[in-house]
Write a sequence for this structure.
């Protein structure tokens, strides 16, 4: 079925009840959404503006939360605005160990988080995912970026392409600062054209994890390029700075009115 989100002031829960979902966002920003218990789900276009709180309905706020789905969840062309006073929120969080989650042409801006509150991440499959596929993601954050460290659920494999994460510059900051985080050799990760712009005053080698001081498989940083020779399941590198051509998902190209270019 098709479900349209309307609320800009509350969490909207979209329950697939084991079937497929097509989620539609209106021409104006809405509040956070949870897509749960689906087989397949598609969300293309629209804007989400997080709420001015750390918790929503007693749980950490997530602009998009994929929970308990089993097929393929496709998220494309969405603009997430996290730069809201009083807000602490993840961009996209996943707890769906059987699902494939695809993130394409998504822009996540101004996320706020803290160690003492919501450990906000741009993308985190903390509850597990069979496979994540990220292609064209631009984000800014004052806490953490892509966090693909397994937490309460396993991760099968992942691909991250054409992605750039930068500091939002929002102050004050409460620790954090790792804009790419994985664990050593725990699942196959393919990296292609991935960029990190650290916070002001923070070195690149401590803006990725494992960092340069990690005892297990430290990052090797040379010429602004981080690699992990001690993690054979990781292919590719993370580069310091911004892409030469600018953001992979420029301002104004996603959100309301977005039309998918299609993919081959």
């Amino acid at each position: 079925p098709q479900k349209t989100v309307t609320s800009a002031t509350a969490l909207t829960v979209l329950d697939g009840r084991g079937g497929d979902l097509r989620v539609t966002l209106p021409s104006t920003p809405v509040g956070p959404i949870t897509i749960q218990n689906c087989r397949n789900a598609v969300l293309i276009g629209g804007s989400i503006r997080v709420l001015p709180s750390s918790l929503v309905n007693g749980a950490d706020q997530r602009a998009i939360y994929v929970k308990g789905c089993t097929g393929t969840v496709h998220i494309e062309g969405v603009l997430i605005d996290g730069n809201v006073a009083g807000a602490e929120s993840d961009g996209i969080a996943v707890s769906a160990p059987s699902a494939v989650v695809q993130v394409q042409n998504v822009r996540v801006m101004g996320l706020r988080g803290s160690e003492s509150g919501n450990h906000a991440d741009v993308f985190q499959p903390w509850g597990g995912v069979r496979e994540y596929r990220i292609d064209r993601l631009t984000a800014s954050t004052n806490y953490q970026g892509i966090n693909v460290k397994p937490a309460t659920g396993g991760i099968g494999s992942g691909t991250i392409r054409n992605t750039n994460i930068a500091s939002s510059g929002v102050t004050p900051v409460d620790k954090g600062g790792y804009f790419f985080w994985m664990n050593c050799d725990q699942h196959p990760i393919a990296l292609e054209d991935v960029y990190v712009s650290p916070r002001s005053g923070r070195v690149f080698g401590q803006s990725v994890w494992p960092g340069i001081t990690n005892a297990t498989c430290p990052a090797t940083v040379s010429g602004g390029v981080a690699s992990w020779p001690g993690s054979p399941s990781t292919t590719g590198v993370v580069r310091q700075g911004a892409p030469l051509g600018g953001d992979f998902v420029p301002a104004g190209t996603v959100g309301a009115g977005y039309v998918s270019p299609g993919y081959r």
